[in-house]
Amino acid sequence: MAITTTLSGKLSMALAIGGLAWTALQTYIIHSFGFGWYTAAIDGIVSAIPLAASCWLIDNNLRYYQPGKGSYINLLIWCVVLAGVSTLSVRWALPMFKLGQPYFDFLKQSLTIRLFTSFLAIGWMAMISLIWYVQQDQKENEKRKAEAEQLARDAELYNLRQQLQPHFLFNSLNSINALIGFKPDEARKMIHQLSDFLRGTLKKDDQKQINFSEELQHLNLYLEIEKVRFGHRLQTEISCVDKCKDAMLPPLLLQPIVENAIKFGLYDTTGDVTISIRAEIEDNYLVIMVQNPYDPQTARAQHGTGFGVRGIQRRLYLLFARNDLVETYQNDDIFTIMIKIPQA
Amino acid sequence: MKRVLIIDDEPLARMVVQEYLQPFNTEVQVMQECGDGFEGIKAIMQHQPDLIFLDVQMPKINGFEMLELVDPAPQVIFTTAFDEYAIKAFETHAVDYLLKPFSRERFNKAVEKYLSQNAVKPAAKPNEALLETAAQSPAQHERIVVKTGTKVKIIPVQDIEYLAADDDYVSIYTPEGSFLKNKTMSFFEQTLDARHFARVHRSYIVSVAQITRIDPFEKDAHVAILKSGTRIPVSKAGYVKLKQVLGI
Fold first, then answer.
1. A151: Cβ contacts below 8 Å, ≥ 6 apart
2. Stated pTM of the model
3. Cα A204 from chain centroid (whole Å)
4. CA–CA distance, A337 with A315 (Å, rounded to integer)
5. How far apart are the C-alpha atoms of A47 and A55, rounded to whole Å?
6. ipTM above 0.85, yes or no
7. What are phi and psi of A205, to 5 degrees?
8. Which of A233, A262, A291, B42 is 20 to 30 A from A254 (CA-CA)?
9. Among partner residues B100, B156, B157, which is closest to A174 by beta-carbon distance?
């Protein structure tokens, strides 16, 4: 609101300066036709007043109402009418100053030209105002849109991070319930792992990247829990070269990918499942590959385009504005997802 | 002595049930534990159990799909961690179910309820309506599980060419041959994705992607010709539906 007030303040200032300049110019022109400075100045001032009023009127109108594409003709008509009224009021007002017959004749002769200059001045004002306010509106719209987008983006990122499956949580609690009876120490350990994992998913700030070894630590908590749940059916292989450890990536990116792999690996086959996770540095990218076995005969239709992969793709798009950071491959009975994280 | 099976893919989850069943060891006997639906089907055929504890989310085929394939089905106490469709199915059909993790008290109540019911009357037939409600789950819109002899076959819906009514069964036609499923045409009409399948006739549902041509046939009727060359009759009402799906 404050911005619009100062803006309109600036605008009326510009209008006043324009009016003064116009008066001075007209005074000089009238004087150059051979009339005295007094006569010329009266003419300049009296002509400028209705003109300024017309300009103010049209500017004010356009501030609150911008004509649509079809109604520009209305604006033109308004300009013509205002120019006519200004000229008529000059024609009516100036003779009252009793400036002599030669000036009166000159006034009558110059009415047409006065009409046209008035029209041009008012038209010019209308155009400037129109452009100004349309631009102003557009700026505001864009700002609003950007704000809405930012909000939506934050919410979406939040949601994508919060894809913690209730299924996982309840089943983990059920496993703990089983362990309490005959392996209380393991139950206790699992409770600690689960709470560390949950805490890790809560406090991360999405915009702040973390290094790969930190992310790997979080992933290991998750994997330990899943291994307790699924017993010998689930095995993992993690290989990562040393220089990956300091590579940066958005927090909580890896775990949903591995969760997806485990889900499809374990629910799509009945045998033992090895999930392999590999990380490399390649051309200034951190490249992470996660593989899981699957059954090409019965693989569910959503595999590969399912929410898991789409969510990761969307998240990387929101963070890096790029769509080419996730790739999936299926050969024989191995499904591979490869993600690339640009390094600064 | 009641014969019991525990079917769950998580070993620790099976262990909880075993442990909770200990106090009932004069009334029930655990015959076997199974880690997935295939093992479950085999064990049910082998042991003919009176009661099974059945997890819903399991590898390859879920608990409901497994139940569809066993005949006669034993009494079931479902165990699940979280599955909104399953829970909806249980609630509407008043089957006993245990939400993991469940307490010993809750477990005892379920087992005692089963034992007292079966003391008076023999096991009721498995609830068809329950399975139909459970089949509303999106996961089950993508495949159909059938049994051929002793083998279980999973048919992804995109492999289906058409379905035809066949007495009390429905024949599912795929490039690999046809399979019988003990369901009604209206069941498939409801569960298959209406954007890809159209019931073009009282006795036929066709995969829209398989249609290459639709020719007029006698008066008011049409015939759809599939990629495989099969001719499927299209009724007057079916033709209207088909036009809707195809957007013409």
1. none
2. 0.66
3. 23
4. 15
5. 13
6. no
7. -95, 125
8. A233
9. B100
Reported as type and span, the H/E element at residue A83 is helix A72-93
Residue B19 touches partner A, C-beta closer than 8 Å: yes
Pick from A184, A225, A174: which is nearest to B20 by CA? Answer: A174
Q: How much is the pLDDT for A305?
A: 45
B155-246: CATH class: mainly beta
Q: What is the DSSP string of B184-196?
A: -HHHHHHHS-TTT
Residue of A165, A168, A174, A194 to mutate when probing chain B, most B C-beta within 10 A: A174
Distance in angstroms (rounded) separating the CA atoms of residues A204 and A206: 6
Contact list, B98 vs chain A (CB under 8 Å): none
d(CA B25, CA A267): 32
Q: Are B219 and B206 a contacting pair, CB within 8 Å?
A: no
Residue located via tokens 């083998």: B151
SS3 B116: helix
CB contact under 8 A, B142 and A302: yes
Distance CA B150, CA A185 (A): 44
Provide the token pair at B34.
Answer: 């199974």
Q: Mark yes or no for CB contact A167/B83 under 8 Å.
A: yes
CATH architecture of B2-134: 3-Layer(aba) Sandwich (3.40)
Q: Does B58 touch chain A (CB under 8 A)?
A: yes
Put simply, whether B82 touches A (Cβ < 8 Å) is: yes
| Distance in angstroms (rounded) separating the CA atoms of residues B115 and B231 | 54
Q: How far is A186 from chain B (nearest CA, A)?
A: 12
Query: How much of chain A is in helix, strand and coil states, percent to nearest 5?
Result: 70, 15, 15
For each of the domains in chain A, give its residue range(s) and CATH number, in order of start: 2-159 (no CATH), 166-342 (3.30.565.10)
A65-79 confidence digits (pLDDT tens)? 777 767 788 888 889
Residue A338 phi/psi, 5-degree rounding, is: -125, 130
Average pLDDT score over chain B: 86
State whether A270 and B158 contact (CB < 8 Å). Answer: no
B59 and A266: CB-CB below 8 Å? Answer: yes
- Interchain proximity B59–A268, CB inside 8 Å: yes
Chain A interface, best mutation among B12, B20, B39, B55, by max A CB count within 10 A: B12
Residue B60 with chain A: CB contacts under 8 Å: 267-270, 295, 298
Q: Tell me how far CA of residue A311 lies from CA of A261, A267, A328, B64, in angstroms.
A: 14, 20, 14, 28
Chain A: residues touching B (Cβ < 8 Å): 165-167, 169-171, 173-179, 181-182, 228-231, 233, 266-270, 295, 297-302
Q: What does the alpha-carbon distance between residue A127 and residue A75 come to, in Å, rounded to a whole number?
A: 10
| pLDDT tens digits, one per residue of B219-246 | 788 999 999 999 999 998 888 888 888 8
